[in-house]
Design brief:
Elements: H1 17-21, H2 24-27, H3 32-51, E1 57-62, E2 67-72, H4 89-95, H5 118-124, E3 126-135, E4 138-145, E5 148-149, E6 154-156, E7 172-179, H6 191-204, E8 209-214, E9 221-225, H7 231-238, E10 250-258, E11 262-272, E12 279-284, E13 287-288, H8 294-312, H9 326-329, E14 333-340, H10 357-377, H11 379-412, E15 421-422, E16 433-438, H12 440-449, E17 455-460, H13 472-477, H14 482-488, E18 505-509, H15 514-530, H16 532-536, E19 540-543, E20 548-552, E21 555-559, H17 562-569, E22 579-583, H18 592-600, E23 607-609, H19 615-626, H20 630-648
């Protein structure tokens, strides 16, 4: 028996040591998402004050030197001495895990922060942190270093504050911190990413004003968000670039009582458009439940059942031999569901999925009741929705037949793989790469230059279908998309199964020109709409082929942009007359060796991983750029062309 493992090997982490030791357990990652999570934790505390009716203004400031400040006009964290811990409540909240006012439901009936770890985690993962409390005409402050208080909370004057103190009667909390660079991969905040999340919070809390100001710029950038329409305004925002079937969103709100849970409040807005995609966002206590949960199951069940009941009484019933499915009734649906639950049970600290079983029935009964009432009073709206749902059902049935035909065809082919695919010999998906290459010429070079052990090549020809403008039955039968679906091997649309993905790196390799950009966009639209998990799991990449080949004295250099070309050309000692510069017009101009060396060799290549940091903004961009309406797309192009022009200047 080994004797080198004893009691002295057991560590006891005190205070916030556990957070610093394993930050990923508390904020998910130490990348940019984790860095932004710090801001969200502090802002969520302020929003909790707003949900109780004690706060209507929140300010987020990105100061210089990677410092962030969050201010609110809530009640302020208590600064009196805790009766049993004998330190100020402020110090407890800032330096102790599981210390907060959200456990007994007296101070906060509902809240997003449940575990009492939010602001203390921010403090733990900061090089330094400061808290300021304005209350009863006084200002109290405390400073911390690496999560440890440098001294007790003490009263201070307005003169020494690192921000404008405001009126003497001001109240609220100000948290200011600098993230620890030894923990995070980067401490540079993304203004746009933060803005998108703050906009979302403003939608969910009607009347709440949230402002973000970027003071890192010579001319500070400011976004102010305030929406008196709440989730109704949210749905209208999401549908800005779409043609809607009914002008006003369907909005309802209400509550249900539960002996154990208490009062559960439900707020929902829905609006149909003439597109083919479902846009559904669900929230619990302002937390985005990206993985859904019982509240979303209840809403979907009620919507499907209600529309099927109205279908039985309509003329549309004769056009369909089977009931509408959930996918049928949600085609073209944009919906935002927000529930307030006193004692939510989330799956994990990231709170991605609600688990309370009782919430399903409460949301389902309320949704069913409110939708029946609305549709009885608005027969024209339900008529348009049923007409669209029946067409969706017919398309689903046609798509099912097309899939069955494809499967029968593949069953006759032992491999079941498209002829354009040059597969690799490796069978472990985690080690395999699929290059989707534009054109037969480039495909030939890629096949010749690849490492056959783990790199597969799928050559495409011509531009593919814009899936934003068509239904699923056209997608599964499209001759340019079928090879992609078959090669990836995980199905498509509602049948997509991420566990069956044959390659964990799917690399789009297109020419560095306008046509290449268009093909990349069409492919990304397809993946986003019909294989969303590919992007969510980080399986999609963009190849970065060079723009220039520069030859000088029997040496070859590759430049991936104009700036790099200029740097190479301006290198000392080079005679311009002896330098040959070749501008690649397409991938097909490279021989297999050059393509491998510059674009495919894992040791030397540059590839960009496609992320979806903000689902709301991703939805709006795809709808704007690839949808039917021309005006929003023209406006986007004009705005961004002007921005690029200004950057060039």
């Amino acid at each position: 028996m080994s004797s080198d493992y004893s009691a002295q090997n057991i560590q006891v982490l005190k205070g916030l040591e556990a957070v610093r030791k394993r930050p990923g357990m508390y904020i998910g990652t130490t990348g940019i998402d984790g860095l932004h999570h710090l801001v969200y934790e502090v802002v969520d505390n302020s929003v909790d004050e707003a949900m109780q009716g004690h706060c209507d203004t929140i300010l987020v400031v990105l100061e210089g030197n990677d410092v962030v400040r969050v201010e609110d006009n809530g009640r302020g964290i208590p600064v009196d001495i805790h009766p049993t811990e004998q330190v100020s409540a402020l110090e407890l909240v800032m330096t102790r895990l599981h210390a907060g006012g959200k456990f007994d439901k007296k101070s906060y009936k509902v809240s997003g922060g449940l575990h009492g770890v939010g602001v203390s985690v921010v403090n733990a993962l900061s090089e330094w942190c400061e808290a300021f409390v304005h209350s009863e005409g006084k200002i109290h402050t405390q400073r911390y270093r690496l999560g440890v208080a440098e001294g007790p909370a003490a009263e201070t004057s307005a003169a020494g504050l690192p921000y404008h103190a405001g009126r003497p009667e001001r109240r609220g909390t100000v948290i200011r911190w600098k993230a620890d660079a030894s923990i995070f991969e980067s401490t540079t905040y993304n203004f746009d990413a933060l803005s998108n999340r703050l906009r979302e919070l403003a939608f969910l809390n009607k009347g709440l004003c949230i402002t973000i100001r970027d003071e890192r710029l010579s001319h500070p950038k400011v976004h102010e968000f305030k929406f008196d329409g709440g989730v109704k305004s949210f749905v209208e925002y999401l549908n800005e670039s779409k043609t809607v079937l009914h002008k006003e969103p369907i909005f309802f709100e209400g509550s249900r009582e539960d002996p154990a849970q208490g009062t559960v409040e439900v707020e929902c807005a829905i609006q149909y458009n003439d597109g083919f995609n479902e846009i559904m966002y669900s929230f619990v206590n302002d937390i985005n439940t990206r993985e859904g949960g019982t509240h979303l199951v209840g809403f979907k069940s009620a919507l499907t059942r209600t529309l099927n009941e109205f279908l039985k009484k309509s003329k549309q019933a004769k056009k369909l031999d089977e009931a509408l499915s959930g996918d049928d009734v949600r085609e073209g649906l944009t919906a935002v569901l927000s529930v307030k639950v006193p004692n939510p049970q989330f799956e994990g600290q990231t709170k991605g999925k609600l688990g309370n079983s009782e919430v399903k029935g409460m949301v389902e009964s309320l949704t069913n009741e409110q939708l029946e009432l609305f549709f009885d009073q608005h027969p024209d709206v339900i008529s348009h929705i049923l007409e669209k749902s029946v067409l969706a059902a017919k398309a689903r049935i046609a798509a099912r037949a097309a899939r069955d035909a494809t499967r029968r065809k593949n069953a006759m082919d032992s491999a079941g793989l498209p002829g354009k695919l040059a597969d690799c010999s490796e069978k472990d998906p985690a080690l395999c790469e699929l290059f989707i290459v534009e054109g037969d010429s480039a495909g030939g070079s890629a096949k010749g230059g690849r490492d056959r052990r783990f790199q597969a090549i799928l050559a495409l020809f011509g531009k593919m279908l814009n899936v934003e403008k068509t239904r699923i039955e056209k997608v599964v039968t499209n001759e340019k998309l079928q090879p992609i679906i078959a090669s990836i091997g995980a199905g498509c649309g509602s049948e997509f199964d991420a566990a069956r993905i044959r390659y964990h790196k799917i690399i789009i390799m297109a020419d560095a020109d306008v046509d290449g950009s268009h093909i990349r966009t069409l492919l990304l639209t397809f993946f986003y709409r019909y294989m969303t998990a590919l992007i969510e799991r980080g399986h999609v990449y963009l190849a970065m082929p060079p723009l220039y080949k520069i030859s000088y004295e029997k040496k070859t250099f590759y430049a991936y942009d104009d700036a790099e070309k200029d740097r190479i050309l301006s290198a000392s000692g080079r005679n311009p007359e002896k330098v040959a510069v070749q501008r690649y017009k397409g991938l097909g101009e490279m021989n297999p060796g050059q393509l491998w060396e510059t674009t495919m060799d894992p040791r030397r290549r540059s590839i960009i991983q496609v992320h979806m940091d903000d689902a709301v903004e991703a939805e709006r961009i795809f709808s704007t750029l690839m949808g039917e309406l021309v005006a929003p797309r023209r406006e986007f192009i004009e705005e961004n062309a002007l921005m690029v022009s200004n950057l060039d200047v």
